[in-house]
Specification:
This protein is 38% helix and 20% strand. The chain is α/β, with parallel strands linked by helices. The relative contact order is 0.08.
Length: 752
Amino acid sequence: MSRVDEPRLLIVGLGLIGGSLAAALRSADFQGQIVGCDPNPDEIALGMQKGLIDAGGTELGDQVVDASLIVLAVPVLAMETVMQTLVEVLPRAAANVVITDVGSTKSTIRACAERVFGRVPTNMVLGHPIAGSEKSGVSAANPDLYRHHKVILTPEPDVEPAALRRVQALWSACGAEVLEMSVEHHDQVLARTSHLPHLLAFSLVDTLARQDDRLDIFRYAAGGFRDFTRIAGSDPVMWRDIFIANREAVLASLDDFEAGLARLRKAVEHGDSDALIATFDRASHARHYFDTLLNKTTYQAEYHMQPKGKVTYRVHPGGQAQGRIRVPGDKSMSHRSIMLGALAEGVTDVKGFLEGEDSLATLQAFREMGVAIEGPHQGRVTIHGVGMQGLKAPSGPLYVGNSGTAMRLFAGLLAGQAFDSELTGDESLNKRPMARVADPLRLMGATIDTADGGRPPLKIKGGAALKGINYDMPMASAQVKSCLLLAGLYAEGETRVREPAPTRDHTERMLNGFGYPVSRKGDTCWLQGGGALTAGPIDVPSDISSATFFLVAAAITPGSDIALEHVGINPTRIGVINILKLMGADLALENQREVGGEPVADIRIRYAPLSGIDIPVDQVPLAIDEFPALFIAAANARGTTRLRGAEELRVKESDRIQAMADGLAILGVEHTVVSDGIDIVGNGDEQTASYGGGRIDSLGDHRIAMAFSIAALRASDDIVIDDCANVATSFPDFVDLAARVGMSLAVEGVHD
């Protein structure tokens, strides 16, 4: 927690919020003087009796003397009166005084400050703690009220930096997460997530309380009713003030709610089961999805509000690599199955869907565009397609988590829609370049705006008349190719894409599977715009990228024997298999078969000594996502492994060449970095540890985190890996499967 160095803190309004602030500071061993001001002398007396304040009174002019920090904790509609008094007595405060508040309607309070002071003073930092209780008054003061809750600050552009830091320190000392956003955005968000639910709860309870059989209604109400209506027990006066003060934002959110309620009423009236399941399933999974993301310290609904938590892995040295396992479904195919299923005519049933954060973000994005989707449940998803022209405009930006695949493919798909759209992602994705898709889409006639450096968010103008192009990709990328093919579905004429080296062809295979012909000759594929997709079943094979970590685990660990079931072995994805075999791995493909147009097999791998190789350049694009794990294989091979032609690794979730090199250096592995690759000198002695331990920063890159996890099998000491939360994006069961095969991996927790 931060230390608060304020000699005299004045809290104006000693109710629940102000009293809890004093209690939290006392609990945090605040060394300054806390003074209270409240029109009710009994509240002041009780605050002093409870030891929350050192002194206090009912007159602001008496209490403001020498105050270094003033917290206005009065009702919103009383704020202007208090400010009018404050402006007269403020000269009595300390020369460096800072003013802040706790009101929930920031536009109203900012307007009060402008009327009273002439402008928002540069030493005033408006704020709002997102915490409360049905209880009120200083008697309900709770020192833990703000712990692990958010406090949103809405500073003006010209705020004094020192003032902002002091207010941040105040709330951090109380155990809160301190965030910043604009006044306007704050009021819009709170109108929907706090004010509207309170309004509905008050209305529902009032409606039922006026029924003749109200006693039976309340007597037999179950837990769900109590949970939903609990907030109707809140302070009526406070909420009256909030609704009046934030009138415009509340009315706007109420309009949206009433429109949705009208749609539900119509669906019930007409027995429209498809409309009902679309709404209920969208809401149910949105709620579940938001909970999942919140528990992993990401926040899909307000993606830029909350700092990402830092999950840490501690992996003990040694262990085994034994067993028969099935890794999650292929992420690339999971994304594409949802996208094409949504655009198809009819119902698409998907098996093996990857229930990771990125795939769920894609699924949720289509729900927000009006597609009814059932599931996922144990890898099964049912998509009620809306056809090529059936998507509806989302109500806000579409969030795709950490997935570059989703963002680039969505860019192509959305470029052909009639409505405007915006794509954004998490902190890591929003740093990645998107010009590789934006530029050729512009050549097709799309209007796309990006942030500085061609980075997200991507703002795509609807209604563009796309035209097919012949595009020679400067760098091999399945994502760019797929983006242009999806845009080509909506383009006039033919769209042709030539790739300088083979890349994964899941999009082409799946489009053909949906009845949309895609042709290929040599290094070029093409399609004609204006066709249609027909729904059908999809069985998503296990992801070879996820399987790679266990393939390498077995390849480097003496005595190992692992079988991986139902793994996709698409010819454009098997670079890792080819490279491991060239290094001497004992690897065999068993039970080879084809499922839904995709080749699959069970892969069995047993330990055999590895040798360093010069990785063939033609294998690089076929293993581009698997190199972090292959670097660990190289560190355990006899001799030097050399990689060239892998420039794309530098623009993944991290600069994977440099990130892996930094980690290898910490472990003591000899290596040399070049612009398009790396040389790694391996140990090759199975009788000794291949390297030491140490603390690795994964930079939020899931593949870096998993690669160094398996490295511990041959380390001499613990490997501790920071920033591992994004492993859930592609491999939610990684920790469990690692334990099952014999690794000793502990999740130490989340650190802010």
